[in-house]
Fold these 3 entries.
Entry 1:
Amino acid sequence: MGKGDKKTKRGKINRGTFGARRPRIKKRRSIETKIGIASKATPK
């Protein structure tokens, strides 16, 4: 078990792949877009 193993986290890192052991990190929405500051800040 190590770098060559497809099923371990270290093996996934070595191969540069993702899976159940190493899921992708999803981007979080910024707070500004969530509450809609940009749409409210338009000058009259």
Entry 2:
Amino acid sequence: MGLTAEKRSADWLAQGGLRPTRQRLALAGLLVGDGEDRHVTAEGLFAAASDAGEKVSLATVYNTLRAFCEAGLMSEVVVDGSKSYFDTRMDDHPHFFWEDSATLTDAPKDELKITGLPMAPDGTEIAKVDVVIRLRRK
């Protein structure tokens, strides 16, 4: 028997040590309630919440997504230094950015080979490498 959306959402919040407030549970349900990974923008999640009848402000959506990231439940992928996407899949993996629809999807991890990185400057270490492959239709 599978997990219900409510149980999956509550368990997800508990993994990050977050208190299951009504708004967090509602947004978590939209993000992980069906067990699928997703890439969302704050505006897209706000629209989905509104469509679902949830009373939540865009500022609350932004704050909640940041809290989910800080709790290690999601990661933020920045495209063009200005557009943020939030990813529920937490393993290291590359992304495709579809320019025509401004959407982000997972790219095949096993097909990516990084054979070398530049040395980090003295006193620093590489924390993470983000790979975003931009696609445009021919």
Entry 3:
Amino acid sequence: MPRPIRPRNVIRIGPVQVATYYDARGREKHTAACTAPRCGFSADYNSRPAAEIAATTHHCPIR
């Protein structure tokens, strides 16, 4: 059974949450995920600034 992801350093930029976590191999990863209903945007990045830029430039396709 894989270990659960434990996000830390979570911030919210508009409807998008940016968090840092460790993947299964122990590497630090950063994710950006939109919390708007029916949006479905989420992406993993190797650097925190990249995840924050993705969060600031994200526009939900569904209104």
